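Subject: design request, 815 residues
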């Protein structure tokens, strides 16, 4: 037993009986006191009869205890009631006990919480001892509020409520809804989540009293007080399957089925006319489930309410609505017939309610609102040229009378639509149209003034062609729809003019700025001639009367232009197919030759494109003193690159534009090519004051070489004979760098230059002498070079020691 204690606690041990289970446990109070004081006192014997729980509510717990033990307590000892909220760990409360009370009431508890209560003995030293059992006390949750019934029927009740009071840190887990059938004593319960605040109680028996209550419940299953109970009686069960049978013109029968689980005293029936202002009629039926309602008005609409009656309590009314058949029309006849509609005259029935007329035909029907007495009705969306069988019914809401059959009615034939001319030539006219609506018909087409006689065609297709008409003649044409046993449709008329005959063009008369057109006309009617000339840049139209000569000249045209000329005959608003021909004026010579040198042996030549159209250019070139020119090219672009020229030579260039086999005048120009460039330079025999520059020979002629030698302070220009291939440059300074350029020149035209750098040899130092000697150093002194040398190299033998060169001496020498 002592093996589980610390070394300083083995001499002070107390065992206490476990109040919540079997066995004993070590009491905790010796662990908080200094030894050996606790060990000098004896534990008091506790009794389970000292304290027990009497009652618990939402916020209070009442305990009864025996206070006789206080009489035997030594001085300084006291009894305390300790309690702790399970949801708030560490929050312990105490209530002192006196010997003047035997009932303890603990207030300000939280509803729906779990508390632990225990009786403690406190000693003057501060140690405590627990007496008796630890009581686990569950306070009741607050009850739901405002339980109400929202609706009641024969087999269910709908209820709702509000959540319990949430003050004082109140808590609950869910609801339990209970109801008891007070007749049978049977009850049921429904557990609901705390978020629900309404429920539907179903499966109830009709006309039974039920007690309903709703409680809040904690997680430990503690229920609130039953403070919101209600007693509700379900309604009488209404009749089932109420229906209307045997509907006549002025009567009907209403039947129903009784409730299977309840007997009723009688049934209440109420008849309510909906069509007129007649009074309601009421009936009571005792031993039947049907009632025959008579003395009604045809076509009227009635609502019948049926309810069960028990002990003077009436169930929910079950309502059915029924409209009686109206009387049929007295007479109906066709009044007007069109292609897509028929207008009927209808005599309405007397002494009957109605709201409209339904007309049926070929599996279709149409409804129209009807006026009193006689009325005219139009049936639309019919097919032309069709026979219809119409039946007329008087309607009253969803009921309709017996039908009235009319004799067969034939709609009118529809005329063809979109009648227009198709292909019209100088010898035929094609007539096209869209087919008329309907089926089983054909067409009659007539053409008057087309020839010497009237032309007639009977066709099934939507096309007719009249041949051998007079060219250019205005013709009167009509087409109509025909069908056996039907009247012909109205004729659709139009006028179509035949195309005039085409002309025949004769050869053109051409100049560089004009084209003369001639033609020959043929038979038929012609009012005038339409001429046009066009090319890619413009179009020009002209008219000439048929009484004038058959010739016309177009002036102010572009040289070398390609033109398309058309001539058409005109009769009214129609033209013949144009007679067309293409011709060109003579081309113009190219101008503004531009030469761009690409290399010494190549040239890029371009020129301005002449106005008008050309097929290409004939380009010739060669040396000026050679005739004829050696080279010829036919080109289709306004530029050319020539790559076989000789540098430094004189050339002649000739160019012509051509169009077909026509050539323009020649444009000529002379030009000289640039001398060949110097490709590379070589330097040899370089010394302190001179160097030799040489180069390779090149093809072509030139006058002289120009050699330019320069640096930042000097420049030499040397013109050398064309027969030389080297030149020596003298007068250089030692140790300097020179840029050398060589070019070939012919007249004032220079070839490409070549450049090379010359570096003259540095001069040897002069005036070298020793000027001072010491044990560890000596000084050398020499004259500074007049050339470009800026650095010097001193070699010392044997190779040890440090060398320092100074050029800024007082006498401008080097030390």
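Subject: RE: design request

Done. Sequence follows.
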């Amino acid at each position: 037993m002592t093996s589980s204690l610390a070394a300083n606690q083995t001499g002070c041990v107390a065992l206490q009986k476990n109040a919540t289970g079997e066995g004993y446990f070590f009491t905790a109070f010796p662990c908080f006191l200094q030894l050996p004081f606790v060990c000098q006192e004896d534990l008091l014997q506790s009794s389970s009869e000292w304290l027990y729980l009497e009652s618990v509510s939402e916020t209070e717990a009442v305990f009864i205890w025996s206070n006789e033990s206080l009489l035997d307590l030594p001085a300084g000892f006291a009894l305390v009631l300790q309690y702790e909220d399970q949801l708030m760990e560490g929050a312990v409360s105490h209530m002192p006990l006196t010997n003047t009370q035997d009932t303890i009431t603990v207030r300000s508890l939280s509803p729906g919480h779990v508390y632990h209560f225990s009786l403690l003995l406190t000693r003057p030293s501060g140690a405590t001892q627990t007496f008796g059992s630890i009581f686990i006390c569950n306070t009741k949750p607050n009850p739901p509020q405002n339980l109400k019934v929202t609706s009641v029927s024969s087999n269910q009740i709908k209820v709702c409520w509000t959540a319990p009071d949430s003050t004082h840190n109140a808590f609950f887990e869910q609801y339990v809804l209970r109801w008891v059938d007070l007749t049978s004593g049977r009850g049921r319960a429904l557990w609901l989540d705390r978020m629900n605040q309404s429920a539907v109680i179903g499966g109830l028996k009709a006309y039974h009293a039920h007690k309903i209550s709703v409680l809040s419940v904690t997680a430990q299953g503690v229920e609130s007080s039953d403070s919101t109970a209600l007693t509700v009686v379900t309604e009488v069960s209404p009749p089932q399957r109420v229906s209307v049978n045997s509907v006549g013109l002025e009567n009907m029968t209403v039947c129903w089925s009784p409730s299977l689980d309840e007997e009723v005293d009688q049934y209440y029936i109420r008849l309510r006319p909906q069509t007129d202002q007649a009074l309601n009629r009421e009936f009571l039926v005792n031993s039947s489930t049907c009632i025959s309602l008579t003395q009604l008005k045809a076509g009227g609409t009635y609502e019948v309410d049926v309810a069960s009656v028990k002990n003077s309590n009436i169930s929910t009314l079950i309502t059915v609505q029924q409209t009686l058949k109206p009387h049929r029309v007295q007479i109906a006849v066709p009044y007007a017939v069109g292609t897509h509609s028929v207008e009927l005259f209808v005599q309405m029935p007397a002494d009957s309610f109605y709201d409209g007329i339904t007309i049926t035909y070929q599996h279709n029907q149409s409804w129209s609102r009807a006026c009193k007495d006689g009325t005219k009705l139009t049936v639309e969306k019919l097919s032309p040229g069709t026979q219809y069988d119409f039946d007329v019914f008087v309607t009253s809401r969803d009921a309709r009378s017996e039908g009235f059959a009319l004799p067969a009615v034939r709609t009118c034939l529809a005329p063809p639509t979109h009648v227009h001319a198709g292909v019209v030539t100088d010898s035929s006219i094609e007539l096209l149209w869209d087919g008329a609506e309907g089926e089983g018909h054909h067409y009659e087409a007539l053409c008057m003034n087309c020839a010497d006689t009237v032309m007639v065609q009977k066709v099934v297709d939507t096309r007719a062609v009249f041949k051998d008409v007079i060219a250019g003649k205005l013709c009167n044409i009509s087409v109509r729809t025909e069908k056996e046993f039907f009247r012909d449709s109205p004729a659709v008329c139009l006028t179509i003019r035949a195309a005039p005959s085409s002309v025949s063009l004769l050869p053109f008369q051409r100049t560089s700025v004009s084209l003369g057109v001639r033609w020959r006309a043929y038979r038929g009617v012609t009012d005038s001639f339409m001429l046009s000339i066009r090319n890619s840049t413009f179009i020009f139209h002209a008219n000439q009367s048929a009484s004038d000569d058959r010739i016309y000249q177009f002036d102010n045209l572009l040289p070398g232009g390609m033109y398309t000329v058309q001539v058409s005959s005109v009769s009214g608003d129609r033209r013949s197919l144009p007679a067309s021909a293409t011709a060109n004026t003579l081309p113009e010579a190219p101008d503004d030759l531009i030469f761009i040198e690409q290399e010494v042996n190549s040239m890029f030549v371009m020129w301005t494109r002449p106005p008008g159209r050309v097929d290409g250019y004939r380009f010739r070139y060669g040396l000026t003193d050679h005739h004829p020119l050696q080279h010829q090219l036919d080109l289709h672009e306004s530029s050319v690159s020539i790559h076989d020229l000789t540098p430094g030579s004189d050339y002649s260039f000739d160019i012509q534009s051509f169009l077909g086999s026509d050539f323009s005048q020649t444009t000529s120009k002379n030009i000289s090519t640039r001398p060949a460039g110097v490709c590379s330079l070589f330097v040899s025999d370089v010394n302190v004051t001179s160097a030799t520059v040489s180069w390779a020979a090149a093809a072509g002629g030139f006058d002289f070489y120009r050699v330019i030698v320069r640096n930042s302070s000097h420049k030499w220009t040397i013109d050398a004979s064309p027969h030389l291939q080297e030149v020596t440059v003298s007068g250089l300074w030692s140790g300097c760098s020179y840029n050398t350029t060589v070019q070939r020149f012919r007249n004032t035209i220079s070839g490409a230059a070549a450049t090379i750098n010359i570096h003259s040899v540095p001069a040897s130092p002069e005036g070298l002498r020793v000027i001072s000697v010491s044990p560890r150093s000596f000084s050398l002194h020499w004259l500074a070079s007049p050339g470009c040398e800026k650095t010097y190299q001193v070699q010392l033998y044997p190779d040890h020691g440090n060398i320092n060169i100074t050029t800024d001496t007082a006498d401008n020498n080097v030390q």
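The radius of gyration is 66 Å.
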